[in-house]
User: What shape does this take?
Amino acid sequence: MMTDFERFFVAMAAAVNLASTSSGNAKDTYERKGTGFLRDLVKWLQEHMTTAFEVTYQGKARPLLGWVKANW
Assistant: This one.
């Protein structure tokens, strides 16, 4: 089962790909859909930024928020 991030990413990539090979109304529709999926993807990233990424520094891996908390 895909995560929301994967679903938004795949849908956006598909829309962009279809827009690149389409013309007229179809192209406009795919571009609008791609923009909408990009918006959803950016929103997801903004909401999950602190937990979605693992950062490795000097051999230690932590979620991004873990590094922020460790340095305060």
About this structure: DSSP finds three helices and two strands in the chain. The chain has a mean pLDDT of 92. Residues 4-70 form one domain. Helices lie at 4-20, 24-52, 64-70.
